[in-house]
Amino acid sequence: MALTCATTVLRPPSTCYDGDDCDEELSLSSTFSSSSQESVSQSFSEEPPLPSRDSSCSSLRSLSLSVSSSEPSSSNNSNNSSTQYLVERSKFVGTPPTVFFGTDANPPSEEAAALPQVLPKVFLKYTGVNCNVVKQAFARAGFRNCPKDKDHFNAVWASPMKVNHFQSFKAYQKVNHFPGTWELGRKDRLYRNISKMRRRHGDKYDILPFAFELPGDYDEFLKDWERRPNQWYIIKPRSSSRGRGIKLLKKLSDVEKKKSGPRECIVQRYIKDPLLIDGYKFDMRVYVLVTCFDPLRVYVAREGLARFATEPYSSDSSKMKSRRCHLTNVSINSKSKKFVANQDAAKDGEGSKWTLSALRRHLESNEEFGVTSWEEQIWSQVKDLVIKAVISVDAKVNTLVKMHVPGNNCFELYGADVMLDSKLKAWLIEFNTGPALNTPTPLNKAVKSRVVTDMFHIVGFAPVDKKKHERGVQASRQNRLTGIGLQKMSATHRDTNQAQTMVFDGVKESHLPDVVRETEAEHRRSVDRVFERAFPCSARPSAYHSLFEVQRYNNIVVKRWLIAERRKRIRLERERAEQEEEAKRTMMESPKVDDALQATAAAVAAT
């Protein structure tokens, strides 16, 4: 049975929503325990502990709990039964534990213990496109259906929402969209935002093929058309998905209406020299997770999909009408008899869709492509254009978040489509909201299940006693009315100039600002997961800050913290290197000492 959100959820009619085909509906309630006993029990995982890339994560503990709840019962949801789920603790004081989302690659740690109190149950409200991987990830983690007439959910998965619908969320509730998401998802908005940044920052924003927004840019387009007789152009509707309405431009009449002049569309310079594999064009679907806009936190999934056209590529003008030669959209090519669906996730370098891992292996193992390092030559470009695209909408989205979102309630998964040209330059083609999460093949399921599960784990859903939370909200509201407990904030508290001089050397973690503790706790949840944090960058804390239209206090505070951490790492690495050098020197000198002692002993014996 599908979940329905009590709050009306509407998608803006012109928002680009990349939902290919939907999975069959899955009832969440069928996956939960129906035990009627309410108890708390400890349970230790039998899985071996995972090796960690970050020793600081050793403090995180997975806790297996059987929890009871005082939530009202419903005929659609057995609220009186107990359910086991895992909770991962953070080492930071004041940072709450979060629900553990596991995969075969990330089983729970062996160390487990019960929390000292009974934890409340966690609930999901679901509406919009039906995707099994989303429902199954929540079900495995122990989430239950939230009854239709209740609003005590911890998570809501919905289609893009109108901005006023964000105002009703409680502090502990998370929703899978930001207001203003169309600034990235609509082709015309993305073009405007990137063009604005290109005017300000020049070639740094040469990440999107140059485009014209008609009818406004029609005269400029005509000049470009005349100056570049060998240039091809591609027509795209302002807002569409799955390749609908996209075609190559053969003649000017294709963009002109008979009476009213140029039609409304995007005309973009076509990448005529794409990188080909066995003569076929391909693009990369890169999954991008944004967990916060203030401070900005962007993650990029190391695993994704490479999608191939089903007709050999040709730059012959006679082939311009062949959409399956020039477009890589699965919705278009899957209807071709030449489309080869992958039937074995282990064979991920075959057929019309590969994993990014398979693409990497293929490019690095064939000298003809000139790829000696995927990370340095390609992946660094991908992360760069993703960060720049998100920064281009930072000011607009933050304005809407401040106006309509009560707290840190939002996160969002995007699908960035990236293409490589013959010179290995990465180009951003589209930035899709609501990327298709259907899983028609084992390969799709393997990739998307991990992306979705790891996304939820990083976002962090905190179990909350709803009644206690409501009492706290009421007390806080009363204090605001009476003035009790209020402290006047100094004018410099949020001053960005003051933030630039912050020093964190020697500061205990319990005394760090909330924004730093939240950022670090989230980052540590990403360790050993498919997502890597692209921004802020631990190795280059100051990178990209000059591109922001508004220098925000929280961004600067996090940057100063990362600078301090980087200095600490460099100092520790230097000390470790010095210790190793000293140990080597001692080992090399020890034979000389032994020889000297033996010579002395021989001299004494001779005497």
UniProtKB/TrEMBL annotation:
Chain positions covered by the region annotation Disordered: 27-58, 575-607
The keyword Glycoprotein is assigned to this record: no
Keyword Ligase: yes
Gene Ontology molecular function, alphabetical: ATP binding; tubulin binding; tubulin-glutamic acid ligase activity
Biased composition (Basic and acidic residues): 575-595
Superkingdom: Eukaryota
Catalyzed chemical reaction(s): L-glutamyl-[protein] + L-glutamate + ATP = gamma-L-glutamyl-L-glutamyl-[protein] + ADP + phosphate + H(+)
TM region positions: none
Comp. bias intervals (Low complexity): 596-607
BP GO annotations: microtubule cytoskeleton organization
GO cellular component: ciliary basal body
Record key words, sorted: ATP-binding, Ligase, Nucleotide-binding
InterPro entries per UniProt: TTL/TTLL_fam
Pfam families: TTL (PF03133)
PANTHER family according to UniProt: TUBULIN POLYGLUTAMYLASE, TUBULIN POLYGLUTAMYLASE TTLL5
Name used for this protein in its record: Tubulin--tyrosine ligase-like protein 5
